[in-house]
What we know:
alpha/beta, CATH 3.100.10.20, 2 domains, four-stranded mixed beta sheet, 14% strand, globular
Amino acid sequence: MPTACILQRDARIHLESERLLVREADSATGPGPVLREIPLRDLDRLIIGEGVQITSQALSAVLRAAVPVSLLGWDGDYLGGFLPAVNTHGRARLRQYERTLDPAFGIQMAGRIVTAKLYNQRRVLQRVGASRAAGEPPADDQSLRASLDWLDNLFARVAQAGSVDEIRGYEGAATARYFQAWGGFLPAAFPFERRSTRPPLNAVNACISYASTLLYHEAVAFIHTHGLDPALGFLHVPEDGRWSLALDLLEPFRPALAEALTLDVFSHQMLAAEHFEPRHGGVYLNDTGRRKFIMQYERRMEREFMSECAGHRTSLRQQLEQQAVMLKGALERPGAFEPFLMN
């Protein structure tokens, strides 16, 4: 059980020996029934909802086992988390600060990230275009081919870019063109005109945003774990209020996870209109929708596959952590950083 996600309101988590016991709320006659027993040795991540109570003994045991804990609010937003104590890696961070001020290094890292994202966008379009089956929404083959060719032409431009701003411009243009083609594969019941965030304006955007949020906070945890400062990015300018390096590292995973998963949950009718609700001027997953989506997210993140680039079996979660490891190595050897590429 790499990830345990406990969202049931009023659930209580206790420690018993080397296991977490998840119970219903206490009743007038005593402790509630046990809903789940989770051996600590089988746990890699713990996600709990705002209405879940966890004892200090259980929380201490989880952190001692080097398991990060994420806390989600009533509306599914990430509120914060607990990370196991780790070495602060002062020398690596000092080198990271120096590299952040090195324009040539920033262009190199940003260029590789955007090139990988662009490659993965093309792969997603190629895959869904090749696997269309009867009953799925039709897409114009000529239009799809034109989009793939247009994206192809950007690789050389990104490689020749003279500034990070120029690279950002290519990334924005590529993503806009990609979503034009990507939206054509969605069912007619869930139309997608454009990418919208803060707030997401429809169910499709709600799923993309939620998957991206989960990815983002996993990336933050991995960056902390490996001793780097997640606030200092290269493609994304460091700004107060966000972890820019985490945004950098997850960019190649957006097509492979957030957008590919969103296509799946709608194309295979895993989610329907009743799994969403209007809120704060936008559209968001409701409690049931979040549970269903998180289940599919976890399956996608933990599914093993043979990576042509890595040369061994791996998972998206392992690859996400590996990005932090390789970036740390690239502070001394820039060639060590190889952003994630889909097969």
